[in-house]
Amino acid sequence: MAQTNTGRPAAISAEGWGWRHAGRTTPAIQGLDLRIDPGERVLLLGPSGAGKSTLLHALAGVLGEEEDDSDETGSLLLDGASPREQRGRAGLMQQDPETQVVLSRIGDDVAFGAENLAVPRDRIWTRVHEALDDVGLRTADGGGLALDHPTAALSGGQKQRLALAGILAMRPGLILLDEPTANLDPAGVLEVRDAVRRCLDKTGATLVVVEHRVSVWKDLVDRIVVLQPGSAGGGVLLDGPPDQVLAEAHSLLKAAGVWVPGYVPETRRRERGNQSAQLLVAAQDLAVSRAKPRRKGFRSIPPQPVQHGISAQVRAGQALTITGPNGTGKSTFALTLAGLLAPVAGKVSAAVELSEGAGIDPFRWKADQLISRIGTVFQEPEHQFVTGKVLDELMFGPRHVGRGEERVDELLERLRLTHLVDANPYTLSGGEKRRLSVATVLAAHPKVLVLDEPTFGQDANTWAELASFLSELLDQGTAVVSVTHDEEFSAVLGGAELRLAPAERSRKMEAGAA
To answer: Which of 94, 144, 151, 338 is the most exposed place for a label (fewest CB within 10 A)?
Structure first.
């Protein structure tokens, strides 16, 4: 692919455009009429399932590659031609950064896109250094991560920054960002937004960014475009300058689930909870890592822990929120607490009331013993899907452990998935995938829930429903452990907070009341 495909800002035009995914009876998006001029910066909003991600994938020219039974209507053009004919003209950062990691070292991964665009070698590595600096993974003086740092050792938030760096190094005419700050700590959110701003100022590229929370991007964009779901007629609901749209349609935006600045939907908030409630799981002086021990002769050498010295308690009917900057081992600790990773040092112990004869160490439990006791929602929803239909996903857990399926209908209704029962889970929007991943775990009635970024990709309405549902489960005695940067969500659940500090700067973990 020639390098001349990049550089100049791209123009977008849609006339009556729509798309139905294979196996779906209703379109993900339909009746879209939209024009975006070269160099414009657009914030794309709408309820979960309105087709925002579908539009971004179409503009990147990658929509429908593996969908034989999909259906397209109308026209969608990039610079007057089909986006499929101009791959490389647009750079897409997807909701799941895990799917965008290509190579094993961060420098090579960032260089990959530019290499495929035939950028001269000496210019590639200048761009790589600039892009890593812009997203906060490496600094101009050589600080941060080395170019040969393994991509497998990055946290989810760091992988998001890596994906953005790869796009910035390509210098595309159109930058497409799908929830680019969803899994980032507050400082990382600002770093990524500012990195995008610097890139746009340098290149003049066109921007379309999907984000549920308006406040982060409002001052960077020229326009706000709000989509309505295809099932509701599709098309553009609102379009205009940010201040005008926010001022004139505040109530309409809230009804559509948009996180307008200063708005937090009403939910049932819990107090701190009973500190003397039944202890279910305890972590004592825990050291954690995702790496496996190395063999050296007859010896087994444990991996270097990403965090150590962690102690925590999980009690029935109480929430525990795990917070801290990206890369501090939050997800790794949560997976260890849930019995899915072996501790490097220290121990995780289950109380008799939870283990019910399965043994004190959750890591040694069999799959059917674990699923009915400790249910885990991974940061990447796709890692949990094992069937080809939404309904089958929800039935899988209860059938596997011999439990009733009475909760399935309630979960479908409460988490707004009823209309998707026959859909392939992999064709859902990011927010729908997240709600399904939560629902599949809840269907097995575990006594402890471990949730990694549970509110990722949710509009305000689905966020409120999910937070309220988890609050009710707490009232019923379920323990809820959450890895999250979502302060509003933490406030709704109440409970205790365990804050992990960067291991390279501090070994201190702060645990206290939220």
So the answer is: 144
